[in-house]
Predict the structure.
Amino acid sequence: MYIVSIRLLIVDDHRLFREGLKKILKETRDIIIVSEAGDGETAIKKANIYNPDIILLDLKMPGMDGKEVLRRVKDIGIKSKFIILSASLARGDIIDSIKLGADAYLSKDINSNNLIKVIRSVYKGEYPVRASLNKILNENIKEEEMEMASGDLEKIDLLSRREYEILSLVASGFSNKEIGEKLFISEKTVKNHLTNIFKKIEVQDRVQATIFAYNNQIVS
């Protein structure tokens, strides 16, 4: 059976932590560690060289921190997905990372099995943001007082009833498969709807779509 390979770049300033991650992930058949980096500058260079599917990124590093790495890699145009793996659970760090385009934010206390599940889920574009952040995401969006932009109402008006429903379900943490089962449509149809939704509300992925939904009270 064909096995999809998930190409991963590990970025953390602690060598022992990187070694531990490599040992855990090498036990899988589908996750390949293409390289590693111990600082932000090296991380950007290696992201440019290897173009990994996922960058597993520490947030707190000396010199260039994880947020700046995330920002610069996105600016370059590299399409890698980002999983923040951090000891910090500060709400400001979490919401900043999500705003910058992180696909998941995890505590370094996560167990190895759950980490592997998240990597696979992020790779498929189905990681449930709301479920992972629970009340933290919701509270931060409220505390940051993200006000509805005037243009957002026009974007929402472009959505069909079905698209609005799917956007609400995505923001509530449901995967494409689960949405399809709820609405009695195929997973492929869900993906097609999401492509149209992202275009209409001008977002790049389901993380940004979730923030848009919370910001505009599509889900609460």
Summary: The longest helix spans residues 187-201. The domain at 147-215 is CATH 1.10.10.10 (Arc Repressor Mutant, subunit A).
